[in-house]
Amino acid sequence: MPLPHLQTAPSRPHRSSPPLVLVGASTRAAAWSAIRAGWRPLCADLFADQDLLDVATAIAVEEYPTGLIDAVSTLTANLPNETCPRIYTGAMENHPDVLNSLAAGGQLLGNSTDVLKLVRDPHWVARVCQAASLSCPEVRNGHDIPEANGQWMLRRLDSAGGAGVSEWKASTGSPGRNVVFQRRIPGLAASAVCLGNGSSASVLGITEQLVGEPWLHAPRWSWCGSIGPLALPASLNEQVAQLADVLASASGLVGLFGIDLVLDNKSAWPIEINPRYTGSAEVIEMASGRSMIGRHLEAFGEPPVAPLDAVAPLGDQTTATIQGKAVLYAPRATLVSGLPEGGTSWRLADVPQPGHLVDQGRPVCTILATATSLEGCRNVLERASENVYQKLASIE
pLDDT tens-digit profile of 135-147? Predict the structure, then answer.
């Protein structure tokens, strides 16, 4: 069977394309998606990676996240606010004051801080699931300390991407404030990419999550990639669909959102709700050939600028059905230069500007891959990561 060929990154949009502000920890994936939907992204994030600068206007923010406010003012200085919508991406749900400031300055197409307060509360999620007879891990307040027997996770309420998550152990010491205990569920880490309309939701796809992978030098509980879409038994698909629908109905979620899950043989267990564009959305976009940012904008009533299926899939879908991404973390302080270009089944993304120094434990770049099976895609990602790490070691 021939190997699929990878799609190239999108080209820089024409100046006449409508502008769209994107803010968050990383905006490259959302920017590529926006371009495929016909928009011209103006981005503010932590990195301003080279492959973002190649196709969009971008500012790297040092004082994150408060510095996003001034960065957006700079990006939109010559634009009428009413013609330039704003979308937030990863981890911004933990900074409601910044979101309120951004909303005051222009049209913020994302869930309101009132909605965020609900869905980011594990106790609220547990109550909603219980009322709908859906599975949900037991949750305890930080002062209701359980036995340190390996059955509990300690989660900060402002966790994102696995940061602020740890196994509760006797050696951990005081749990601190702004935390909850969540019963640990054995099973497959997964994520559902969903689209809400304020009263209901649909599931666009489900991916396997890569968490704390040693071959990516990722911190123990950190999200470090996704592979999918997963083909689940009908009963699990129905549970995930009901979960998305119930959460949207109870909270008013609009647009893209993600549900981090653990899947066992019988149940889909919600672990965390991410009420915005997620890292797994790029995998579903590559697999479906539809711009996720385009779908998000449509959910907020923005008419399509380009056909939602204008983006071709990353690989030839006659042979490739599984897509994946993996985030490589720096095993030590690393000077980035001359990274490999990729191959027929993988390419790099989130590529730092040449000569950029990446601190130990921070993301270096992302691998995008395509294959004909979940195992095959994981193998492509692992081989590609070895290639990249070898190149990084040779230039130290």
Answer: 999 999 878 887 8
